[in-house]
Amino acid sequence: PDDIEKGGEHLAATSMFQQKAIEVRAQKINWQSYLQSQMISQEDFSFISRYDVADAPTREKIVEENPLQSAKTFYSLLGHISKDQTIQYLLTLVDDFLQVKRTRVNIFREYARKRKESVWAHFLNLLNRPDGFIQNMSARVISKMACWSAEPMQGQDLQHYFLWLKDQLKMQKNNYVQSVARCLQMMLRIDDYRRAFAAVDGISTIVSVLSGKVNFQVQYQLTFCLWVMSFNSEIATRLNNHGVIPILADILSDAQKEKVSRIILAVFRNLIDKPEEASVKKENCISMYQCKVMKQLELLEQRKLQDEDIQEDIEYLMEKMEASVQDLSSYDEYVTEVKSGRLEWSPVHRSERFWRENAHCLNDKNYELLKILLALLETSRDPLVLCVACFDLGEYVRHYARGKHVLEQLGGKTLVMALLSHTDPNVRYEALLAVQKLMVHNWEYLGKQLEKPSQPQAQAGISVA
Asked: What number is the average pLDDT over the span 144-155?
């Protein structure tokens, strides 16, 4: 979006934030009373009382007469007035002031430089106010200043701002979440800001919000954020470590709005295009394939969409996915499944040959896959995932001589044993079998003594077709 108003499409006054801004602009502030009570200076009164009632051309002349006076007055009034209603009005005035001409951000910069003050401090402090509109209008002004200024926002100020945006995204029932997302849409178009947001673990927050129940507009806006971030090849390389592909594949399967489908496909394309390592490109392709993206693309093709870009992305993604699964080894399939966090009884898990040939591979990259399996035991709430993870850890121990020692060192034995008291009988069964493999040698004999739950989980493997 060229400016913060456009979350990809004009929303007019559909969001609560936009509606509130219209109400605030319609208010009349009695500046004379502030002057009489000596809360503002004569100089600030002269500027604000003229500027407030003037039409657009007259406002332009007032600013040109003495540009620094406008920054001085806005800063001064925001610093000396405490009434929420007036602060709301002033911030909306500042936002409109910047929207008319982007170069006006430099007036604030210049004034702060001459005073040896922070250009951000006033606005960052307002993020702590209890009033939601004041917080979000301040955030909006900050994003415009950060994106339109010749000098970027940096260091602690930038980190503080991004952490605030993250907290707002995570807040339950935040009525201003669309406004928060718009600030991010704007900021993340700049590469330095993409890196800074990734550094405060912003990607995980976006993925977490997208995995919950949010409306299509927020889905679009946050997926847009992932899309602009994926233009950075380093970020694109790591993006699916956060489970981006499975979450977006889920949203794509339910998407009713074409713009949501379009932006998801644009992210998928960048996840193949932008990483520099061929292995990452292939892994992302396989992950899309396993998450049934190919099926969704076929359904989208049948809908005869008008958008040429989406048609081109569909063809590109289908071609890349088909090529990646041509020479797909069972180990490639396994790696992608584990990294997706969505374990199922796919054929590789039950294959004796697979474990005989590949158990030692779970040690690669400092035990990367083992650590993912253990993390799933700790965090997953899905009984199927827990069952398969327990089974895989047991097979690793059975087929790799030092497996017991490695799992002990990584804390795996404790995690598996904790599942012996799980509410699901299938999880208890697989955990017990895995514990036996960890503790005894003649596991086949003892394993046969165990009685399987009467209703074992469906062993429908994930089809790679």
From this structure: 90
Terminal C-alpha separation, the chain: 39
Lowest mean pLDDT among 170-174, 258-262, 428-432: 170-174
- What H or E segment, with its residue span, contains residue 370? helix 364-379
Is the dihedral angle over the CA atoms 295, 296, 299, 300 positive or is it negative? Answer: negative
CB proximity list for 230: less than 8 A, separation 6 or greater = 236, 239, 267, 270, 271, 274
Give the total residue count for the chain: 465
Q: What share of the chain is helix, strand, coil (3-state, %, to 5)?
A: 75, 0, 25
What's the confidence (pLDDT) of residue 193? 95
What are the tokens at 58? 């007259």
Give CA–CA dist 400/408, Å, rounded.
14
Q: What is the mean pLDDT of the chain?
A: 87
Pick the closest to residue 404 from 418, 421, 386, 416 (CA basis): 416
H or E element, residue 164: helix 155-170
* Confidence grade of residue 449 (pLDDT, cut at 50, 70, 90): low
Residues 6+ apart with CB under 8 A from 15: 176, 178, 179
* Nearest to 363, CA basis, from 387, 396, 328: 396
Q: Look at residue 163 and tell me whether its pLDDT is greater than 90.
A: yes
CA R_g for the chain? 28
pTM of the model: 0.75
pLDDT greater than 90 at residue 147: yes
CA gap 231, 186 in Å, rounded:
14
